[in-house]
Amino acid sequence: MQAALASLRALAALLLAASLLAPPVRAQTGDPLVEARDVKQWLWRIHEAAGRRNFQGTFVVSAGGSVASSRIVHFSEGANQFERIEALDGYKRQVYRHNDLVHSFWPQSRVALIETRQATSQFPALLSSGAEHIVQFYDVRPVGEGRVAGHDANVLLLRPRDGYRFGYRLWAEKQSGLLLRAEVFDERDMVLEASAFSEVLIGVKPQPELVIQAMKRIEGYRIQRPSLQEVDLAREGWTFRQLPPGFRHVSSVKRTMAADALTQRPTAVREGGSSLPPTVLQAIYSDGLTYVSVFIEAYDAALHRREILMAMGATQTLVQRHGDWWLTVIGDVPVATLRAFAGALDQRR
């Protein structure tokens, strides 16, 4: 279930702090419907609320005929962020985060993954760059009001201006701006993935000690600490001839994997019991709203047996051989975008 629902994995493992540099939001008066001239500020409100608001609730994702849910608690104290996420379906798993430090626990296998993750915006956060960049590639407009999990919400429609990205329909709680529900749809307006709080309390009392204390309970767990190093993609010998419109480089890292890069499950094991700690180069790109990750690793015929193109909800995955290398491109974008990334990748000799 977790391997299939990539967006839920992102929610459960990567709900990270929103930007603290966003401009202030004007008080909303008069007509409760968000006016078109205010949509940029509403995008920032959604983004800020995910990091600055204290909330807890049950979050449900439906994609590709599968449904999965997580229990989420988020606290904010000054510049510090604290989160506790528990998967309610499939493998038992708890994730705790204090700023960039993330502890993931699998109680059944007694494995704990401890890592530092660079902050990237995932639901219910929103932007990785300014709203001005978003409106260059999405037509953003208010489409009415709604009600989600007992909360009144304003509804925004983000329709892509080209074929390199999907569209979004967002329900933002009126008072706080917290994103309560999101739908991702394709060029035919078919909903590929829906995610929403089934119940949520906003403005709960912060209790960061609940997260801090849980992160210390590692006795009896087999600890995995993936090695992570920031790198320059060009110095590693790789470049892109041309990126799809609107996408910008976010980060590049080299990691010795103690967990699978796509599923975040514990390391696979070869027959005979030896572990597989592959070194993987990962480059992340964003159009300000969604992300594409490019994974590059040395080709191994024993491991890399089949090229695939897979879709699960909004998440598309392209896996193919690239000479002596094995390439995986994954993101909540159309297949054409993944192919554009893969086709533009060059190895510098």
Characterise this structure.
- With about 350 residues, the protein is mainly beta.
- It is about 15% helix and about 45% strand.
- Strand 4 (about 95-100) and strand 5 form a beta hairpin.
- The radius of gyration is 20 Å and the shape is globular.
Topology:
Elements: H1 6-14, H2 39-52, E1 55-63, E2 66-77, E3 80-87, E4 94-98, E5 101-106, E6 111-116, H3 131-137, E7 138-148, E8 151-160, E9 167-173, E10 179-185, E11 191-202, H4 208-215, E12 222-224, E13 227-230, E14 238-240, E15 248-256, E16 279-286, E17 291-298, E18 308-312, E19 315-322, E20 325-331, H5 335-344, E21 345-347
Parallel strand pairs: 6-12
Antiparallel strand pairs: 1-2, 1-11, 2-3, 3-4, 4-5, 5-6, 7-8, 8-9, 9-10, 10-11, 13-15, 14-21, 15-16, 16-17, 17-20, 18-19, 19-20
